[in-house]
Amino acid sequence: MKTSKGLPLYEKIGYALGDTASNFVWRGALAFLGVFYTDTFGIPAAAAALLILLVRLSDGVTDILMGMVADRYQSPQGKFRPWVLWSAPALGLFMVLCFSTPDLGPNGKLIYAYITYIGLTLAYTISNVPYSALMGVMTNDRLERTSLSGFRFAGAFLGGVLMTGFLPDLVQFFGNGNQQQGYQYSMFLFAVVLVIMFCLTYALTKERVSPKQTSTKPLSAELFEFSKNIPFIVTPLLAITLFFYYRNVITGLLFVLVLVTTAIVIRKLYNKPRHTLSRTQQDVADLLSNKPWLVLLGVGFLFMMFNGIKQGVIAYYFKYYIGNELMVGQYFISLLLVSIIGALLTAKLSQFFGKKRLFIFCLGMGGLTTAALYWVGEDQVSLLFSLGCLSEFFAAIMPVLFFSMLGDSADYSEAKNGRRATGLIFSAGTFINKAGGGFAGAVVLFVLAAFGYNGMDPATAEGALEGMKLLMSWIPASFAFVGATLMLLYPLADDLCFTRNQKQHSLSSS
Q: What is the tens place of the pLDDT at every residue in 314-333?
């Protein structure tokens, strides 16, 4: 394995541009998709919620598949970089299609939304799983990886600034009163910039770490083996969806039954001798014995619920509670500028406090400052911006730590098992982020629907104001508090702890 230390500044910037482009979709377009579906395209809130939830949960299969493909792919241009280049045009195209409004009936609109949203998430998976894993092979220096993660998320937040800050004004400019045209033209502009940025990421980055290849089977054979395990992934996701959507005793019991059955099957797999398992089964068994990775998955889901609910309700909150729809752009810009600062400071802060302690502190403080938003009045805009920016500073540090610590968990797995599945580890990380974001978007729309909101009838907004306040404050804060508690179980408290684990494993193996 090649080793590497410091990365040149231009390469860190080049890598960051990839997440700037990705977040035209992730932090930008998806932040407005719910309100676009309900208020512009005319899809009922409950139907839009189920759409977002089902499609995002389907990423559980596609992300893992993409991680397997990326782990086993190799070319002269690298293992992960080519995917970033190839996927860019498709990602830009589906971003435009998702915000286009063909003249269809109610059922036709829903079918069109499903097709284009599935296309967007597939293109994002093909792009973002290899892009995330690329960080794990650009350097094997843990502090440098944290710095690279900071640059990445500074780029991500810049993408959010450009999209969320300027989209409302661009929609007004291009549409001139026609929001349907305004959204479509604005997305076309961002799609062009997205493709250019991904090309720069491909050109400016380099893969230096070469993981040891342990598989002798062709990819097609391993994908066939994985396809036999798909029911164990799909069935729990469907059970979660049914329980989340219907929330009754029958779906609750079904959900518990499916989880117990899945746990029994997984436990049997884990207890089998490793030499009897296929490569795919060995990857799964390695992950199930990787406690840092398991804790990170849970925390990753919770902080994405925290972030996603806040972001998903902002457009509604400003439109109806504050009474100034265009101010949402100023608010997003303020949040994301603070996020860039938080992302760039993460490496230094983690060196001083340690990643685990810093993560717990940010989850706790982020939850407290977010909960305080419940008592902000509609005329207290300055207080709203102040609390929102303070909360966002803590929130910005979370994904930087998360993806850096995923790389640490990949190192841990390699030290423990002698095998490294970087793509699979990072694909699970991107999936849990998508799942959390999907549930968060669905929570926003389900709560609004429960308060009687109908996007095509503005009169219903008055009765939904309490729901909007809760979605802006206590609901996301509760997920942050649970995440801080779970993070206490993370075993790699700092670099010294990790080094000690490696040394103990080396001694026990010798």
A: 888 888 888 887 788 888 88
